[in-house]
Amino acid sequence: MNLLQRRLFLELVKVFFLALAVLLLFILMGRAIQLRDMLLGLELGVGDTLRLFGYLCPFFLLMVCPVACMLAVFLTFLRMGTDRELIALRAGGVSLYQMLPAPLLFAFLCLGFAVWVSLYWLAWGMGHFRAEILDIAGSRARIVIQPGVFNKDIPDMVLFARQVEPESGTLAQVLVEDSSNPDRTLTILAPDGSMDTDYNRGELLFLLRNGRIYTERGGAVSVMGFDEYVVRLSLEAMFKGFDLGPVKPKEMSWSELIGLPVPEIAARNERLANKIVVERHKRWVFPAACVVLTVFVIPIAVSVQGIRRQNGLLLALFLFFLYYSLISAGITTGESGQMPPLIGIWAPNALFLALGLCGIRLAALERMPRLPDFAFRPRRSGMDRTGEARP
Q: Is the pLDDT of residue 47 over 60?
Protein backbone atom coordinates (compact mmCIF):
# COMPACT_ATOMS: atom_id res chain seq x y z
CA MET A 1 0.00 0.00 0.00
CA ASN A 2 2.85 2.42 0.73
CA LEU A 3 4.29 1.74 -2.72
CA LEU A 4 0.89 2.37 -4.32
CA GLN A 5 0.46 5.68 -2.49
CA ARG A 6 3.96 6.84 -3.43
CA ARG A 7 3.51 5.98 -7.10
CA LEU A 8 0.12 7.68 -7.19
CA PHE A 9 1.43 10.79 -5.47
CA LEU A 10 4.46 11.12 -7.76
CA GLU A 11 2.34 10.77 -10.88
CA LEU A 12 -0.13 13.36 -9.56
CA VAL A 13 2.71 15.83 -8.93
CA LYS A 14 4.17 15.37 -12.43
CA VAL A 15 0.84 15.85 -14.20
CA PHE A 16 -0.05 18.79 -11.93
CA PHE A 17 3.07 20.81 -12.72
CA LEU A 18 2.76 20.05 -16.43
CA ALA A 19 -0.89 21.17 -16.48
CA LEU A 20 -0.09 24.23 -14.35
CA ALA A 21 2.69 25.36 -16.69
CA VAL A 22 0.65 24.84 -19.87
CA LEU A 23 -2.49 26.57 -18.55
CA LEU A 24 -0.52 29.47 -17.10
CA LEU A 25 1.31 29.94 -20.41
CA PHE A 26 -1.94 30.04 -22.38
CA ILE A 27 -3.52 32.52 -19.96
CA LEU A 28 -0.50 34.83 -20.04
CA MET A 29 -0.48 34.74 -23.86
CA GLY A 30 -4.16 35.69 -23.89
CA ARG A 31 -3.51 38.45 -21.38
CA ALA A 32 -0.68 39.79 -23.54
CA ILE A 33 -3.14 40.16 -26.44
CA GLN A 34 -5.56 42.04 -24.17
CA LEU A 35 -2.81 44.38 -22.96
CA ARG A 36 -1.20 45.00 -26.35
CA ASP A 37 -2.34 48.65 -26.39
CA MET A 38 -0.72 49.22 -23.01
CA LEU A 39 2.46 47.39 -24.01
CA LEU A 40 2.77 49.40 -27.21
CA GLY A 41 1.76 52.70 -25.64
CA LEU A 42 4.30 52.49 -22.84
CA GLU A 43 6.99 51.15 -25.21
CA LEU A 44 7.97 48.42 -22.76
CA GLY A 45 11.14 46.44 -23.21
CA VAL A 46 11.43 42.68 -22.89
CA GLY A 47 12.62 42.90 -19.27
CA ASP A 48 9.75 45.22 -18.23
CA THR A 49 7.20 42.99 -19.96
CA LEU A 50 8.47 39.81 -18.32
CA ARG A 51 8.53 41.49 -14.93
CA LEU A 52 4.93 42.70 -15.31
CA PHE A 53 3.70 39.26 -16.31
CA GLY A 54 5.60 37.82 -13.36
CA TYR A 55 3.62 40.12 -11.07
CA LEU A 56 0.37 38.91 -12.70
CA CYS A 57 1.21 35.23 -12.16
CA PRO A 58 -0.20 35.02 -8.58
CA PHE A 59 -3.57 36.31 -9.78
CA PHE A 60 -3.77 33.63 -12.49
CA LEU A 61 -2.32 30.91 -10.26
CA LEU A 62 -5.29 31.25 -7.94
CA MET A 63 -7.65 30.35 -10.81
CA VAL A 64 -5.38 27.80 -12.51
CA CYS A 65 -4.43 25.80 -9.40
CA PRO A 66 -7.87 24.12 -8.94
CA VAL A 67 -8.15 23.06 -12.58
CA ALA A 68 -4.55 21.79 -12.64
CA CYS A 69 -5.25 19.76 -9.49
CA MET A 70 -8.44 18.36 -11.00
CA LEU A 71 -6.70 17.46 -14.28
CA ALA A 72 -3.88 15.71 -12.43
CA VAL A 73 -6.27 13.49 -10.48
CA PHE A 74 -8.61 12.84 -13.42
CA LEU A 75 -5.87 11.98 -15.94
CA THR A 76 -4.01 9.79 -13.44
CA PHE A 77 -7.06 7.64 -12.64
CA LEU A 78 -8.07 7.67 -16.30
CA ARG A 79 -4.66 6.29 -17.30
CA MET A 80 -4.88 3.63 -14.61
CA GLY A 81 -8.28 2.58 -15.96
CA THR A 82 -7.09 2.57 -19.56
CA ASP A 83 -4.07 0.43 -18.66
CA ARG A 84 -6.34 -1.91 -16.65
CA GLU A 85 -4.44 -1.12 -13.46
CA LEU A 86 -7.68 -0.37 -11.59
CA ILE A 87 -9.03 -3.81 -12.52
CA ALA A 88 -5.80 -5.47 -11.39
CA LEU A 89 -5.84 -3.59 -8.07
CA ARG A 90 -9.44 -4.53 -7.39
CA ALA A 91 -8.72 -8.14 -8.29
CA GLY A 92 -5.90 -8.02 -5.72
CA GLY A 93 -8.30 -6.85 -3.01
CA VAL A 94 -7.52 -3.11 -3.12
CA SER A 95 -10.70 -1.03 -2.90
CA LEU A 96 -11.20 2.50 -4.16
CA TYR A 97 -11.15 3.79 -0.57
CA GLN A 98 -7.59 2.45 -0.17
CA MET A 99 -6.50 4.47 -3.21
CA LEU A 100 -7.83 7.77 -1.84
CA PRO A 101 -5.10 8.83 0.67
CA ALA A 102 -2.61 9.91 -2.03
CA PRO A 103 -5.03 12.06 -4.11
CA LEU A 104 -6.62 13.56 -1.00
CA LEU A 105 -3.23 14.43 0.49
CA PHE A 106 -2.23 15.95 -2.84
CA ALA A 107 -5.49 17.96 -2.99
CA PHE A 108 -4.98 19.35 0.52
CA LEU A 109 -1.41 20.34 -0.34
CA CYS A 110 -2.77 22.18 -3.39
CA LEU A 111 -5.35 23.80 -1.12
CA GLY A 112 -2.59 25.03 1.22
CA PHE A 113 -0.59 26.41 -1.70
CA ALA A 114 -3.68 28.17 -3.10
CA VAL A 115 -4.49 29.67 0.32
CA TRP A 116 -0.96 31.07 0.55
CA VAL A 117 -1.30 32.58 -2.94
CA SER A 118 -4.76 33.96 -2.14
CA LEU A 119 -3.98 35.57 1.20
CA TYR A 120 -0.43 36.81 0.67
CA TRP A 121 1.13 36.41 -2.76
CA LEU A 122 -1.86 37.81 -4.71
CA ALA A 123 -1.72 41.24 -3.06
CA TRP A 124 2.08 41.30 -3.44
CA GLY A 125 1.85 40.67 -7.19
CA MET A 126 -0.99 43.10 -7.87
CA GLY A 127 0.63 45.80 -5.75
CA HIS A 128 3.95 45.50 -7.56
CA PHE A 129 2.15 45.42 -10.92
CA ARG A 130 0.37 48.71 -10.16
CA ALA A 131 3.51 50.35 -8.79
CA GLU A 132 5.57 49.23 -11.80
CA ILE A 133 2.97 50.51 -14.29
CA LEU A 134 2.75 53.88 -12.55
CA ASP A 135 6.52 54.18 -12.38
CA ILE A 136 6.91 53.36 -16.10
CA ALA A 137 4.02 55.68 -17.03
CA GLY A 138 5.53 58.51 -14.99
CA SER A 139 8.92 58.04 -16.65
CA ARG A 140 7.36 57.96 -20.13
CA ALA A 141 5.30 61.06 -19.33
CA ARG A 142 8.45 62.99 -18.41
CA ILE A 143 9.92 62.03 -21.76
CA VAL A 144 6.74 62.97 -23.66
CA ILE A 145 6.65 66.47 -22.16
CA GLN A 146 9.35 68.33 -24.10
CA PRO A 147 10.75 71.60 -22.67
CA GLY A 148 9.60 74.74 -24.47
CA VAL A 149 6.92 72.87 -26.47
CA PHE A 150 3.13 73.22 -26.14
CA ASN A 151 2.01 69.65 -25.53
CA LYS A 152 -1.49 68.92 -26.88
CA ASP A 153 -1.45 65.11 -26.63
CA ILE A 154 -3.70 65.20 -23.55
CA PRO A 155 -7.39 65.69 -24.52
CA ASP A 156 -8.88 69.09 -23.53
CA MET A 157 -5.58 70.20 -22.04
CA VAL A 158 -2.51 72.12 -23.15
CA LEU A 159 0.69 71.76 -21.11
CA PHE A 160 3.82 73.89 -21.41
CA ALA A 161 6.99 73.92 -19.32
CA ARG A 162 10.06 76.04 -20.04
CA GLN A 163 12.35 73.48 -18.38
CA VAL A 164 11.84 69.77 -17.72
CA GLU A 165 14.10 67.43 -15.76
CA PRO A 166 13.20 63.88 -16.93
CA GLU A 167 15.09 62.19 -14.10
CA SER A 168 13.48 64.04 -11.19
CA GLY A 169 10.27 65.17 -12.89
CA THR A 170 10.87 68.82 -11.94
CA LEU A 171 9.13 71.48 -14.05
CA ALA A 172 9.90 75.21 -14.31
CA GLN A 173 7.70 78.06 -15.63
CA VAL A 174 4.63 75.90 -16.16
CA LEU A 175 1.45 76.79 -18.05
CA VAL A 176 -1.61 74.55 -18.05
CA GLU A 177 -4.82 75.31 -19.96
CA ASP A 178 -7.75 73.11 -18.93
CA SER A 179 -10.86 73.22 -21.16
CA SER A 180 -12.45 69.96 -20.04
CA ASN A 181 -15.41 71.87 -18.56
CA PRO A 182 -17.44 73.52 -21.37
CA ASP A 183 -18.70 76.27 -19.00
CA ARG A 184 -15.26 77.58 -18.08
CA THR A 185 -11.61 77.52 -19.05
CA LEU A 186 -8.79 77.39 -16.52
CA THR A 187 -5.37 78.80 -17.24
CA ILE A 188 -2.84 77.94 -14.55
CA LEU A 189 0.56 79.63 -14.29
CA ALA A 190 3.19 78.51 -11.81
CA PRO A 191 6.93 79.22 -11.53
CA ASP A 192 7.75 75.62 -10.64
CA GLY A 193 6.19 72.21 -10.22
CA SER A 194 6.85 68.49 -10.33
CA MET A 195 5.37 65.22 -11.60
CA ASP A 196 4.27 62.39 -9.36
CA THR A 197 1.90 59.41 -9.28
CA ASP A 198 -1.08 58.55 -7.06
CA TYR A 199 -0.83 54.84 -6.22
CA ASN A 200 -4.36 54.42 -4.78
CA ARG A 201 -6.18 56.17 -7.64
CA GLY A 202 -3.84 55.14 -10.47
CA GLU A 203 -3.30 58.68 -11.78
CA LEU A 204 -0.48 60.95 -12.87
CA LEU A 205 -0.13 64.17 -10.86
CA PHE A 206 1.23 67.58 -11.80
CA LEU A 207 2.03 69.39 -8.54
CA LEU A 208 2.18 73.15 -9.12
CA ARG A 209 3.31 75.62 -6.45
CA ASN A 210 3.00 79.35 -5.77
CA GLY A 211 1.02 80.16 -8.90
CA ARG A 212 -2.23 81.68 -10.11
CA ILE A 213 -5.41 80.35 -11.68
CA TYR A 214 -7.19 82.46 -14.32
CA THR A 215 -10.80 81.33 -14.71
CA GLU A 216 -12.69 82.48 -17.81
CA ARG A 217 -16.46 82.09 -17.59
CA GLY A 218 -19.00 83.94 -19.72
CA GLY A 219 -16.52 86.57 -20.92
CA ALA A 220 -15.43 87.38 -17.35
CA VAL A 221 -12.04 86.49 -15.94
CA SER A 222 -11.27 85.88 -12.27
CA VAL A 223 -7.84 85.38 -10.68
CA MET A 224 -6.99 83.25 -7.66
CA GLY A 225 -3.58 82.55 -6.15
CA PHE A 226 -2.55 79.23 -4.61
CA ASP A 227 0.29 77.74 -2.64
CA GLU A 228 -0.13 74.28 -4.15
CA TYR A 229 -2.40 73.00 -6.89
CA VAL A 230 -2.73 69.42 -8.21
CA VAL A 231 -3.68 68.58 -11.79
CA ARG A 232 -4.80 64.94 -11.98
CA LEU A 233 -4.59 62.88 -15.17
CA SER A 234 -5.74 59.31 -15.69
CA LEU A 235 -3.34 57.02 -17.53
CA GLU A 236 -5.88 56.71 -20.32
CA ALA A 237 -5.53 60.45 -20.99
CA MET A 238 -1.86 60.00 -21.90
CA PHE A 239 -1.66 56.34 -22.92
CA LYS A 240 -4.57 55.16 -25.04
CA GLY A 241 -6.34 51.98 -24.04
CA PHE A 242 -5.09 51.67 -20.47
CA ASP A 243 -6.38 52.98 -17.17
CA LEU A 244 -5.60 51.50 -13.76
CA GLY A 245 -8.27 53.36 -11.83
CA PRO A 246 -8.57 53.19 -8.02
CA VAL A 247 -7.29 50.18 -6.07
CA LYS A 248 -9.82 47.37 -6.44
CA PRO A 249 -10.74 44.78 -3.77
CA LYS A 250 -9.00 42.01 -5.76
CA GLU A 251 -5.71 43.94 -5.44
CA MET A 252 -5.91 44.21 -1.64
CA SER A 253 -4.28 41.98 0.92
CA TRP A 254 -6.39 39.87 3.25
CA SER A 255 -5.69 42.17 6.20
CA GLU A 256 -6.83 45.18 4.15
CA LEU A 257 -10.02 43.41 3.08
CA ILE A 258 -10.90 42.42 6.63
CA GLY A 259 -10.17 45.93 7.91
CA LEU A 260 -12.59 47.66 5.53
CA PRO A 261 -15.77 48.96 7.23
CA VAL A 262 -18.35 47.34 4.96
CA PRO A 263 -21.49 48.91 6.58
CA GLU A 264 -20.06 52.42 6.20
CA ILE A 265 -19.02 51.73 2.60
CA ALA A 266 -22.47 50.27 1.83
CA ALA A 267 -24.08 53.53 2.93
CA ARG A 268 -22.09 55.38 0.24
CA ASN A 269 -21.64 52.71 -2.46
CA GLU A 270 -23.58 49.48 -2.07
CA ARG A 271 -22.05 47.81 -5.13
CA LEU A 272 -18.51 48.43 -3.87
CA ALA A 273 -19.47 46.95 -0.49
CA ASN A 274 -20.86 43.86 -2.25
CA LYS A 275 -17.62 43.49 -4.22
CA ILE A 276 -15.63 43.59 -0.97
CA VAL A 277 -17.77 40.86 0.61
CA VAL A 278 -17.59 38.75 -2.57
CA GLU A 279 -13.81 39.14 -2.71
CA ARG A 280 -13.51 37.91 0.88
CA HIS A 281 -15.34 34.72 -0.08
CA LYS A 282 -13.37 34.32 -3.33
CA ARG A 283 -10.11 34.21 -1.37
CA TRP A 284 -11.30 30.92 0.17
CA VAL A 285 -13.65 29.40 -2.39
CA PHE A 286 -11.01 28.92 -5.10
CA PRO A 287 -8.52 27.15 -2.78
CA ALA A 288 -11.35 24.94 -1.48
CA ALA A 289 -12.11 24.00 -5.10
CA CYS A 290 -8.89 21.94 -5.16
CA VAL A 291 -10.38 19.43 -2.72
CA VAL A 292 -13.95 19.68 -4.05
CA LEU A 293 -13.01 19.03 -7.68
CA THR A 294 -10.66 16.20 -6.69
CA VAL A 295 -13.47 14.39 -4.88
CA PHE A 296 -15.83 15.13 -7.77
CA VAL A 297 -13.70 13.76 -10.63
CA ILE A 298 -12.40 10.53 -9.06
CA PRO A 299 -15.63 8.52 -9.57
CA ILE A 300 -16.06 10.02 -13.06
CA ALA A 301 -12.54 8.96 -14.06
CA VAL A 302 -13.27 5.45 -12.76
CA SER A 303 -16.54 5.20 -14.70
CA VAL A 304 -15.20 6.24 -18.12
CA GLN A 305 -12.45 3.64 -18.46
CA GLY A 306 -11.24 3.01 -21.97
CA ILE A 307 -11.70 6.42 -23.56
CA ARG A 308 -8.77 8.15 -25.20
CA ARG A 309 -6.76 10.54 -23.07
CA GLN A 310 -7.36 13.58 -25.28
CA ASN A 311 -11.09 12.96 -25.02
CA GLY A 312 -10.74 12.56 -21.27
CA LEU A 313 -8.94 15.88 -21.15
CA LEU A 314 -11.80 17.54 -23.03
CA LEU A 315 -14.32 15.98 -20.63
CA ALA A 316 -12.37 17.22 -17.60
CA LEU A 317 -12.13 20.74 -19.02
CA PHE A 318 -15.86 20.71 -19.76
CA LEU A 319 -16.60 19.76 -16.14
CA PHE A 320 -14.37 22.56 -14.89
CA PHE A 321 -16.02 25.13 -17.17
CA LEU A 322 -19.39 23.97 -15.85
CA TYR A 323 -18.13 24.51 -12.29
CA TYR A 324 -16.53 27.85 -13.14
CA SER A 325 -19.73 29.05 -14.86
CA LEU A 326 -21.69 28.39 -11.66
CA ILE A 327 -19.04 30.20 -9.60
CA SER A 328 -19.08 33.16 -12.02
CA ALA A 329 -22.87 33.35 -11.82
CA GLY A 330 -22.62 33.38 -8.02
CA ILE A 331 -20.01 36.16 -8.13
CA THR A 332 -22.13 38.25 -10.51
CA THR A 333 -25.32 37.88 -8.47
CA GLY A 334 -23.40 38.55 -5.25
CA GLU A 335 -21.84 41.78 -6.56
CA SER A 336 -25.20 43.00 -7.87
CA GLY A 337 -26.93 42.18 -4.58
CA GLN A 338 -29.40 39.73 -6.14
CA MET A 339 -28.18 36.86 -3.95
CA PRO A 340 -26.19 36.65 -0.71
CA PRO A 341 -22.52 35.93 -1.58
CA LEU A 342 -22.40 33.11 0.97
CA ILE A 343 -25.04 31.20 -1.02
CA GLY A 344 -24.12 32.21 -4.56
CA ILE A 345 -20.39 31.47 -4.28
CA TRP A 346 -20.34 28.45 -1.96
CA ALA A 347 -23.37 26.61 -3.43
CA PRO A 348 -21.37 25.17 -6.41
CA ASN A 349 -18.72 23.84 -4.01
CA ALA A 350 -21.36 22.23 -1.82
CA LEU A 351 -23.14 20.72 -4.84
CA PHE A 352 -19.99 19.28 -6.45
CA LEU A 353 -18.71 17.96 -3.11
CA ALA A 354 -22.00 16.17 -2.42
CA LEU A 355 -22.05 14.66 -5.91
CA GLY A 356 -18.42 13.58 -5.53
CA LEU A 357 -18.98 11.88 -2.19
CA CYS A 358 -22.00 10.01 -3.52
CA GLY A 359 -20.05 9.06 -6.63
CA ILE A 360 -17.11 7.71 -4.62
CA ARG A 361 -19.47 5.55 -2.55
CA LEU A 362 -21.13 4.15 -5.68
CA ALA A 363 -17.76 3.60 -7.40
CA ALA A 364 -16.39 1.76 -4.36
CA LEU A 365 -19.44 -0.52 -4.45
CA GLU A 366 -19.01 -0.84 -8.24
CA ARG A 367 -22.47 0.59 -8.75
CA MET A 368 -21.37 3.79 -10.45
CA PRO A 369 -23.37 4.11 -13.70
CA ARG A 370 -21.13 4.03 -16.74
CA LEU A 371 -21.24 7.33 -18.51
CA PRO A 372 -22.24 7.36 -22.19
CA ASP A 373 -18.75 7.28 -23.63
CA PHE A 374 -19.66 6.07 -27.15
CA ALA A 375 -19.00 9.60 -28.43
CA PHE A 376 -15.43 9.42 -27.12
CA ARG A 377 -14.48 6.00 -28.47
CA PRO A 378 -12.76 5.78 -31.87
CA ARG A 379 -15.01 4.29 -34.53
CA ARG A 380 -13.65 1.12 -36.09
CA SER A 381 -14.12 1.10 -39.83
CA GLY A 382 -14.51 -2.07 -41.83
CA MET A 383 -15.88 -4.06 -38.85
CA ASP A 384 -19.42 -5.02 -37.96
CA ARG A 385 -20.85 -5.32 -34.48
CA THR A 386 -19.53 -8.81 -34.06
CA GLY A 387 -15.98 -7.67 -34.77
CA GLU A 388 -15.78 -9.53 -38.10
CA ALA A 389 -14.66 -7.81 -41.28
CA ARG A 390 -17.44 -6.72 -43.60
CA PRO A 391 -17.41 -8.39 -47.02
A: yes
